[in-house]
Model the fold of this input.
Amino acid sequence: ADDEIGTLNHITPETIAGRHAISEGTVRQHLKSILAKTETHRQSDLVRLVLRGPAGLDSGGHAKAAAQRP
Done:
C-alpha cells in the first residue's frame, strides 16, 4: 500500500486539471472540500483513507480517529 500512496501523492492538481480540462483552482477547491468532509488534512492522509476502504470511515463518512482503526 505504501507504494500506491507514494505514487498517488505525486499527482499534482495541475496534472489533474490538464487531464480533465478544468482549472487548477477548481481541482484545489474540490480537494479542499474532500479533505474537509473526510476530516483529513493532507493528501497523503486522504490516500491512506481511500486505500483502507470503508473500514476507515465512521457512519457519517468521516475518517475514524487513529485509536478506533483496526
